[in-house]
Known about the structure:
It is an enzyme of class 4 (lyase). By secondary structure, the chain is α/β, with parallel strands linked by helices. The protein has helices spanning about 10-20, 25, 35-45, 60-70, 90-100, 110-120, 125-135; strands spanning about 1-5, 30-35, 50, 75-80, 105.
Amino acid sequence: MKIALIAHDRMKEEIVQLALAYEAILSEHELFATGTTGQRIMDATSLTLKRCLSGPLGGDQQIGAMIAQNEMDLIIFLRDPLTAQPHEPDIIALLRLCDVHKIPFATNLGTAEILLRALERGELDWREIVHEENER
Ligand SMILES: O=C(CO)COP(=O)(O)O
């Protein structure tokens, strides 16, 4: 599965802790991240992530493009609910595309943990069927 991990600055420590706690599960998947988030996770874990640009420089849009092509299977995006972001339109666009393609999307730690446990139990395997149908 292709999983994107993204966090705003005030949430970076949370996503690093999440990646550490779920490293074994995450290591079985293809991981993507926005620039700084990806670097922080790679510095703290043994995970390898494909890093896009930093969010404000277009990283959200790069991940959004993958979602638009229905290539992304799970998004964990720990958004900062208390700080305005200069690239808010990119963030909203990413969210909207997840809804268009029915991609599981977590915006906080509570939901992120539920989704990662569901992933471990194989409850997101329906995404493989979506990919097979897209290839036809
Ligand atoms: O701004 C972001 C998401 O909107 C995250 O970008 P960075 O991971 O580069 O900080």
